[in-house]
Specification:
This protein is mostly beta strands.
Length: 233
């Protein structure tokens, strides 16, 4: 038997080649089915507007992710708009006229660029620096969650993180159904490189089964990256 592992995320420039957009209602719920998200390249040729629709459609033993994804050029400038499902005769649009964070969006110096858009016009923006570029957008520092090692994991695994500034760190482990299995809390960490180790057990001390898990890094309560982990027993 052969085990094939997707190493696309180790390719050069992978993390600066895409934009993730989460569309939420005013209460912070993701299930805004039918919301239309458009990303337009400013100054680009005709046909450079990408369109995605938030879809909760399901397949066999699976469901689409609510977060929509766009491919972006490097460097380039974009504008984003979200059209929310609205009652007849009304149209709720969140774009750069409502919140300047939605345009222009500059790419090329950022990795893991993501936007969270709320129906009431709020926008949260997160990114990671590339090749030592300083953090943008109001001076907020960013952090990098590296590839887990070893991969696949059999007994334990280590997650490298690069802290741009000091902050309180937490790593949560979730299964494919989104259930929280373990929360690792190393506490406040200074700026610089660190490693977070996980012994592949859940909150009750039981060994997690063979499968794929999602590992989410929080710094000062804010999302700072997600990695997939394959566990083999």
């Amino acid at each position: 038997k052969e085990l094939l592992i997707n190493h696309l995320d180790t390719c050069p420039h992978f993390y600066s080649s895409h934009l993730r957009v989460r569309v939420l209602d005013a209460g912070g719920h993701e299930t805004v089915h039918g919301a239309t998200v458009r990303l337009r390249e400013l100054g680009g040729p005709p046909g450079t507007t990408q369109t995605r629709v938030v879809d909760g459609g399901s397949g066999y033993l699976g469901q689409n992710e609510y977060t929509v994804h766009f491919g972006v050029a490097s460097p380039a400038r974009y504008a984003l708009e979200v059209v929310y499902p609205s009652p007849a005769g009304t149209r709720v649009v969140v774009d750069s006229l409502v919140n300047p964070l939605l345009g222009p969006i500059a790419t090329g110096d950022l990795a893991n660029l993501s936007l969270t858009v709320y129906r009431d016009g709020r926008v949260e923006q997160a990114a990671q620096r590339v090749a030592g570029v300083t953090a943008p957008y109001g001076g907020h520092s960013v952090h990098l969650l590296g590839l887990p090692s070893p991969m696949p994991a059999r007994r334990s695994v280590s997650f490298p993180i690069e802290m741009e500034r000091a902050g309180r760190v937490e790593l949560s482990i979730h299964d494919l159904r989104g259930r929280l299995l373990r929360r690792l809390d190393p506490g406040p960490l200074p700026a610089g490189p660190h490693d977070i180790a996980w012994d592949l057990t859940d909150t009750n001390g039981g060994k997690v089964a063979t499968g794929v898990y999602f590992c989410r890094l929080l710094v000062d309560g804010r999302s700072a990256g997600v990695r997939r982990l394959l566990v083999l027993r």
